[in-house]
Write a structure and sequence with these properties.
β1, α2 and β2 form a beta-alpha-beta unit. The protein is built from six helices and seven strands, in the order αβαβααβαββββα. The chain is globular and about 50 Å long. The longest helix has 16 residues. It has one domain: Alpha/beta knot, CATH 3.40.1280.10.
């Protein structure tokens, strides 16, 4: 009979163990994300995929924050984060460290996510934008490329935390240095 696994059976890492693990070579950059609840959800996504960390830029909320904590469920303590008032400053710092800058946005030169194959030996910085205005187009010249999530509905718009989950999963499957134990169906 199938049963839900108990937390103790999930082999969860402690915060200290997580901090010591080898991370997947992906950083997330949040450009003026206005909802602390979205920020918390993205922290949780970054933790689940063992990415290197997140830059919180502009008006993006930072820990400690009760709304971040509400959705992060403690990931705000395990994930390395840094605040910078300027998204361009964060991007330029990441470029100097050898990251390929990928802006997640609908542009005239976007590549569809399902056709983009990340290079497993490359470090990436994924830039996600404001819930209403997206990524500031003044940042476009700093990008190495643009990715768009294919959509068919009438809105052609996803919540930033949902977009981060989709894109981060795609990168996790490509660049994961420590694949988890899998079970067959």
């Amino acid at each position: 009979m199938t049963r839900k696994l108990k937390n103790i059976e999930l082999n969860r890492l402690t915060v200290d163990e997580f901090r010591k693990t080898v991370k997947n070579p992906v950083m997330v950059v949040l450009d003026n994300v206005r909802s602390a609840l979205n920020v918390g959800s993205i922290f949780r996504t970054i933790d689940s995929f063992a990415f290197e960390g997140v830059y919180l830029c502009g008006i993006t909320a930072c820990p400690p924050n009760k709304d971040i904590r509400k959705t992060a469920l403690g990931a705000d303590e395990s994930v390395k984060w840094q605040y910078t008032p300027s998204t361009a400053e964060a991007i330029n710092e990441l470029k100097k460290e050898g990251y390929r800058i990928v802006i997640i946005e609908q542009t005239s030169s976007s590549v569809m996510l399902n056709t983009f194959i990340p290079n497993s030996s490359q470090k990436y910085a994924l830039v996600f934008g404001n819930e209403v205005n997206g990524v500031n187009d003044k940042l476009f010249p700093l990008a190495d490329g643009f990715i768009e999530i294919p959509q068919q509905g009438s809105k052609h718009s996803l919540n930033v935390a949902v977009s981060a989950g989709i894109v981060c999963w795609h990168f996790f499957t490509a660049v994961n240095k420590n694949p988890p134990i899998t079970r067959g169906i």
